[in-house]
Write a structure and sequence with these properties.
The chain is of the alpha/beta class. It is 26% helix and 26% strand. The chain is built from 11 helices and 19 strands.
């Protein structure tokens, strides 16, 4: 970075006193300084300062390309900050960054928590449901929220979902002269009148939370009976082999249970469902588990709907596969992509048998029975057998 025109500067509550010499020099030399009103005030920037537009638009910074420009952000600009949004629109050599300790680092330092064992989330512009996958007994979480009222809303949200006994700290203006740390219990929290930006630290106490194993309880999902049941779902997910950052096509998604469990593993899913009422259920399930940012729901039918979709790393067809759908999928997926299809009808089973013979992979027939009451006794009640074909392109 021999001659960058943009300097991205992390600033804390201690203002100019906490900045490096390089950061202060960049501020002095900048023709324009962008930042939130709070950041500009902390740095003492007046006539050269430009507050961020609402909603945020990075293009306003790019309009200054080639002229000395600085951007102010809180703490570490590349952790839930503006740094990543700007860097992805710039070429190497156009920018340089100087960070200060993030709010997460300061919170962990004040509470004596090992930061590597803490979940860090930005909830100032995201729903509280994003917490759901991370809530488990003893979990330590630090999240950024908008203000004191939002902290109170979060306490209410936690209490409603069985996490009322959780210890909760509100941390305001960390690293500056107005620093304040208050401890509460979520179910007895009184909203802090301080309207400034705050971090909330949680030590979760309550229910067990969402398990990370494949095959979550069926009761967790809103559905109309169109649901890949727990043991079959576990087998499907084992074959799908979810990996963080990978994309799934869930064709004929039903309740979206496969998409949900894939997304809980860190991937993204495109849930394709022909029926509008079932698409509503998929959205509700994604929302309840804080996964709306990872699951896109598309109403339509395959194969026609597939042409405009981003290429997947894995495809799941829960039922209804036919030759036209298979050909469209096989044409679109890349080498190395996994394809898993289930059959409950003899016709689809015959198709899977033929595809297995032509393309290889693994063909498996699964029969499951559950204990059920039979008068004064118990007996096995068999579910419909499922045929699963799994292969790699």
């Amino acid at each position: 970075m021999s001659n960058p025109w943009l300097t991205i500067i992390g600033i804390g509550e201690d203002g100019l006193a906490g900045l490096s010499e390089a950061s202060r020099k960049a501020l002095v030399e900048a023709e324009t300084v962008f930042g939130g009103e709070r950041h500009l005030a902390l740095a003492g920037i007046t006539d050269r300062g430009r507050a961020w537009p609402v909603p945020f638009d990075a293009d306003i910074v790019l309009s200054c390309r080639g002229r000395p420009t600085a951007v102010l952000a809180s703490g570490d600009p590349f952790w839930h900050g503006i740094g990543g949004s700007l860097a992805e629109k710039l070429q190497a050599g156009e920018w340089i960054a100087h960070s200060t300790p993030s709010t997460f680092s300061l919170a962990a330092a004040r509470l004596g928590w090992r930061l590597e064992n803490v979940t860090c989330l930005g909830l100032h512009a995201a729903p509280f449901e994003r917490l759901s996958p991370h809530l488990t007994r003893g979990a330590r979480i630090v999240c950024l929220v908008r203000d004191g009222k939002a902290a109170g809303d979060l306490a209410h949200w936690l209490t409603e979902r069985g996490w009322g006994p959780s210890a909760m700290w509100t941390l305001t203006a960390l690293g500056g002269p107005r620093e304040s740390i208050r401890q509460h219990c979520a179910d007895s929290y009184a909203a802090d009148p301080d309207d400034s930006l705050v971090a909330v630290a949680l030590e979760a106490k309550g229910s067990q939370g969402i398990a990370r194993s494949s095959g979550l309880p069926d009761s967790l999902f809103l559905h109309d009976g169109q649901l890949t049941k727990r043991p079959i779902r576990a087998l499907a997910l084992s074959a799908l082999a979810p990996r963080s950052g990978q994309r799934l096509w869930d064709i004929g998604a039903g309740s979206g249970s496969i998409s949900v469990e894939w997304a809980l593993c860190g991937g993204t899913a495109i849930a394709i469902e022909a029926r509008g009422d079932r698409a509503v259920n998929i959205r509700a399930n994604a929302d309840n588990l804080g996964l709306t940012h990872r699951i896109a729901v598309i109403e339509g039918t395959a194969p026609g709907i597939l042409s405009g979709l981003e290429t997947p790393d894995a495809v799941f067809v829960g039922g209804g596969l036919d030759v036209a759908m298979f050909d469209a999928i096989w044409l679109r997926i890349k080498p190395g992509a996994r394809l898993i299809a289930h059959a409950v009808t003899l016709e689809t089973e015959a198709l899977l048998s033929d595809l297995h013979q032509r393309h290889g992979g693994e063909l498996m027939r699964v029969e499951i029975a559950h204990a059920d009451q039979l008068g004064r006794y118990r007996s096995w009640k068999a579910a419909r057998p499922i045929v699963q074909w799994s292969t790699v392109r």
